[in-house]
Amino acid sequence: MSIQSKTEHSLNDLIAISRDGKDFYEEAAAKVGDAELATLFRRIAGVKTDIVSSLSSVVAAAGGTPEQHGTMVGSMQQFYGKVRATLGNTKYGYVAELEESEDRLLKAFDETIADQDTPAAAREAALRLLPEVRACHDVMRNRKHAMKSAA
């Protein structure tokens, strides 16, 4: 596999998972029924949009085609989140599922960075964005724990 295809493959996985998160945050913001959470969800959706844009630029610069869609796992998680929110505490349901989405993205970034076969350009892009990914993860993890403790 060429450096270009390895870069494209590595980053397109991150792009697809980030798209999943962006789409889920946008949907949750529209449906959560809580102004504070909706604002938080829209802000994090914006971060995901920036991540997709940044990674897409690196893929294109390497001569690849950036991923235009999310993943099947992300679609299923989004569906499960909707069902969970409908059947129980809507706010907590969305926060819990979005935090799972953050776990998935952080794990994918960590794996890309740790993989010795990841090309330098892909690793550098992932490392550059990792603080934002971690920050979003931590916000949602802390929000989930606070909501669980308050219940």
TrEMBL record:
Domain of life, source organism: Bacteria
Gene3D superfamilies named in the record: 1.20.1260.10
Annotated ranges, domain DUF2383: 7-114
Pfam families: DUF2383
Name of the protein this chain belongs to: DUF2383 domain-containing protein
Organism: Xanthomonas euvesicatoria pv. vesicatoria (strain 85-10) (Xanthomonas campestris pv. vesicatoria)
